[in-house]
Each structure stands twice: as C-alpha cells, then as structure tokens.
Amino acid sequence: MSQKQTLSFQAEVAQLLHLVTHSLYSNKEIFLRELISNASDACDKLRFEALHHPELYEDAPNLEVRVSFDKDARTLTIADNGIGLSQQEAIDNLGTIAKSGTREFMSRLSGDQKADAQLIGQFGVGFYSGFIVADRITVESRRAGLKPEEGVRWVSGGAGDFEVETITRPQRGTSVTLHLREDASDYLSTWKIKSIISKYSDHIQLPILMRKEEWKEGEDGKPGEHVLSDEWETVNQATALWTRAKKDITPEQYQEFYKSISHDYEEPLAWTHNRVEGSTEYTQLLFIPSHAPFDLWNRDKAAGVKLYVKRVFIMDDAEALLPAYLRFVKGVVDSADLPLNVSRELLQESRDVKAIREGNTRRVLAMIEDLAKAEQDAESADKEKFAKFWAEFGAVLKEGLGEDFGNRERIAKLLRFASTQSDTASVSLAAYKARMKEGQEAIYYITGDTQAAAAHSPQLEIFRKKGIEVLYMTDRVDEWALSFLTEFEGTPLQSVAKGQVDLGKLQDEGEKKAAEKAAESFKPVLAKLKEALKDKAQDVRVTTRLVDSPACLVVTEGGMSLQLARLMKQAGQKAPDVKPVLEVNASHPLVQKLDGSPAFNDLAHILFDQALLAEGGMPEDPAEYVKRVNALLA
C-alpha cells in the first residue's frame, strides 16, 4: 500500500480556488448542481463502458446518486456508484484543470464575478465549486474493475496542495464529502437540499436518493424533532427531461437542463424540443447559447451534442450530428434506431446519422430564423436576441456558405454586415437590395482587417461620391465564405477591390469619356510605371474608382486578395504570391508630378508602397521606403 502523498495543485487551479473561495459564485447553491451533475456523468460513463464490459457493474447494476448529511460532523456527501477514479486519475483530474488552454483560461479571468463564473463553467471545472461552502473536501473513490484495496482518498483544504493515499473501498464509484464552513449551515437541512435538487437537478435521469425524515416524539416533556431514518427515497423525477411531453416542461426546467449539460451560467438564447418519427426515429433537444465559448475557433476541439440511444448515454460531443459551422449548439439527441455499440467511425457512415444531422441542421436554422424575425417586431420580448446571437456566432455561421450547399440560401438570408451606411453589423443582404440605387446592378462589398481599415480604404472613394452603399467584410472568414456566394436572389456580389470598376448606368457618359481621355494621354507615364514596378505590380492602369487618393491596389477578378494572402501566411499556411494591379489617379498632383521627374523611379515605388499601406499591408522593405520618402522630403 502506498504512503500518503502531499502534492501541489497546478498553478492555474490554485488561482482558481482562490477566486472560488472568495465567493466568486454569486449563487452559492450552484455547487450542489455541479457535483450531482458530475456524479450523473460518472454513472453515464460506467453504463457506456459496460456495454462492452458488463463485468464492470460488479454486484450493483442499478446506478444511482445518494446525497446525505451529518449535522454533528457538519458534512454533506454526494456519492455515486459510477465509473470511479483510480489513484492516478484522482491526481490528474482533481489536481489540474483537465482541459487544454488553461493559461488562456486564467488570462481571461477579469475579476468580474459574473463573467468569471461563466468562464469556470465553460472550462468544466465545477468540482471546485464545492469550496464555495466547504473549507475541506474529501473524495473517496474506486474505479470500476479495480480491486477493493486499490481505492483512493483525496483530501484538500483548497489552498496550495492536496493529499492522496491508497485505501480499501469495497464499493466502486465516488463519494465527495464537503466539510462545511460555519456560514453554510443551511445545507444541513433535508428541506433545503431537496429544494435545490428539485430546482436544478430534477431532470437527472438517475434516481437521486436521500434518507427519509421521520417525526420523533419527545420524551419526558421534551419537544419532538425530525430525524433521519435508514430508509432512502428518490427525490427527483428520475426521468430524462427530453422524454417528457413539452407541455409538461416549464421554461425554467429547460433552462436548468441546459445549464447542467453545458456548465453555463447564463440562460440559452433559444431552444427546440422535438420528437421526430418516420424512417428514422429520434428526439432532439437543442439549445443556442447566449455567448461563445473561449475555444469557438478551435475547429479541432471536440464539439457537438450528447448522444443517447434508447436513453442510454453513448458519448459527449457527437460531432457527426451537426455540421461544424453549428458547433456552438448544445443539447441531446436520443436515437431509437442506432446500435448501442455505435462508434464515432460508424457515426460518420450511418444513413440514420445523416438523416439526424440534416434534421438537426434544419431545426437550428429555424431557431435562428425565428430570432431574426423577432428582431423586426418592435413588440417582441426577444427583439434584442438576434443581434446578440450575431455578435457571438455570426462569423462561425458564415462557414456554412462553404460547407452546406443545401442550406446556402437560408444562411445567406441570415447574414448581417456593417456598411458605409451602418456602423453596426445589422445590414442584411435583403435590406441592402431594397435600398439599392436605381440602375445599380451589383451588391458591393469591401474586405479589410478591421472595420476602420475598410472604412478608410481609398477604393471606396467613387462609391461615396455616388452615394452607393458598400458592405464591410471584416471577419477572417469573410473572403473565403463569400467565394461560395456569388449572388443573392439574382443580384451578383462584387468586391470593390477586384477587377475594373464598372458602375454601369450609375456612371454618366461625360465621366466615361473623361476617364478614357485621361488613360490615353497618360499612356507614356503608365508604360514607365509598369517598367519601374515590374517586380511588384502585375499591371498599372488609370483608375475609375479614386477621387482624392493618388493610387490604390486591386487584384484581378476571381483572384485572391492581398488581405486573404496575408491571413493565410499569418496562420502558417502556404499562400500564393499575389501580384496586384496598381491603379493611379491621373488627376492627382502627386501622379502628375511623375511626368518628367528626375526621381521617377523613387516616386513610383513610393506610390506603390503607400497604396499597400492604405489597404493594410507592409512594404517589402520598410527601411528602403523610409529612405525614399526622406530623400524627397529633403
């Protein structure tokens, strides 16, 4: 038998515990929900492993959670007969935050109690919430399948370290005993604990058991009192919430169910609960969170909904049941058709899974569409929800343009952008079309690293002069996504930074002739510019899009933009070398100064590099650029 060891917490856990013990959670009773939820998960994991190894049930096939307290010892215990922990698992899981990104997690903690509590939920570290009410926690556990003498005891006061030792534990599973603080006496009451379980954990499909309370008559004139009997009773409904009829479930119950499966501390924006019958039978209960998780952009992270088969838990994060662009959705799918031994590999190939995935996708898009409709209704209580959804998840939804051809039109109608007429991302493509100028033949947009960069781009000058609205595309995913959306309801989408600007009927004949004349008279200068910049520019031409600026860079129609090439290189991906076209404003004094200038070559390179700076790039040789500018200034 191993000796007792004293080990130090991972630094992030120590910092987290300090926050928790200083009343990070504004609602202290949440700790019980977290610990019961963990106990339920442990039982789910045993049930899943026992599909292939039924011997793990040992002599206790009925899974359950027991909650008990001892007033004299001031302890509250949450026990389960689930999968349990080995000694090494106890050290790994209770001494560290067992998810990646811990450093980012700690850097995101701001001291704002509400926001920080939300983050703790996202990182799945609800076990530590026990220290809200306890000054010491004892965990005793034995993993199913290990010998009784291979049990483990883990003890910590929530400071810098914890003790762990080997014990003999006949029963499998885990018991978490909280040694309550003086100000936590409320949790030594049957009524209080029952009310918390009813509020937060009634949906847990395992029975949650507590000892019955009995009235004991007083003797010799002493008053009577309630005492705990040896008989246990189930204090929750112990039926999976998604199996109940919708009419029997309150909004509050849906919200608490969401919080328990997501470890979130905010209510969801929306949910949908349906039983689907036909060639494939399943029940779906899906939620849209009200805020994005910290790792939303990590596409390699396991994401997805919980999968059950005939109410038997199969796996968390069943990513095959939703497309990647809906990876923010939480919830449960319970299939009546899939085999109990279904694997992640089989999920990818199953026709039933494909039908469930398509059904889930339709339901989620319908939820988002309902939020968008509510935004237009001044009387709706949900009026603000779509704007919140878009701010949190809009950039991810755009991925669907390239990933989900069948729903591309539905997704396109949900897109929102800022524009030259709106500083907020509130302009839909339909709203843009409705206010297009007479004679306008395209929906114009510009990409940029930031909205400010896009708004100050010289490429917008002719559009501002003409009063033509241009959409700002500033999310990293925009240019890739827009390559799959070439038109909206028959109207083409056109980048103002690609190809020649042809405003068609919006440009009068006088302007066209003036531009042609300028291009003709400027041919000798253009030829010299092309020669001077042959290593940098694919072509040099007179512009039709500039009003006040001397030059700008554009790419050919269908080519990759300079911004996308930069983003790919920053992400460590191989990007083609994009040779842009330099467009010059023949009426600008700086451009006119080129003709006959002894510093022609330097001026040409300065024009190019300034155009590159204006659209967010950097000159290839910044020092040489500065040297040229200084020479001219001198």
Automatic annotation (TrEMBL):
PROSITE patterns: HSP90. Residues 1-344 are annotated as: A. Gene3D superfamilies: 3.30.230.80, 3.40.50.11260, Heat shock protein 90, C-terminal domain (1.20.120.790), Histidine kinase-like ATPase, C-terminal domain (3.30.565.10). ATP binds at residues 34, 38, 80, 93, 99-101, 122-127, 174, 344. GO terms for cellular component: cytoplasm. Pfam families: HATPase_c_3, HSP90. GO terms for molecular function: ATP binding; ATP hydrolysis activity; ATP-dependent protein folding chaperone; unfolded protein binding. Residues 27-184 form the Histidine kinase/HSP90-like ATPase domain. Keywords: ATP-binding, Chaperone, Cytoplasm, Nucleotide-binding, Stress response. Its main location: cytoplasm. Residues 567-634 are annotated as: C. SMART domains: HATPase_c. It is found in: Cytoplasm. PANTHER family: HEAT SHOCK PROTEIN 90 FAMILY MEMBER. Belongs to the heat shock protein 90 family. Molecular chaperone. Has ATPase activity. Homodimer. This is Chaperone protein HtpG. It comes from Ramlibacter cellulosilyticus. The lineage of its organism: Bacteria, Pseudomonadati, Pseudomonadota, Betaproteobacteria, Burkholderiales.
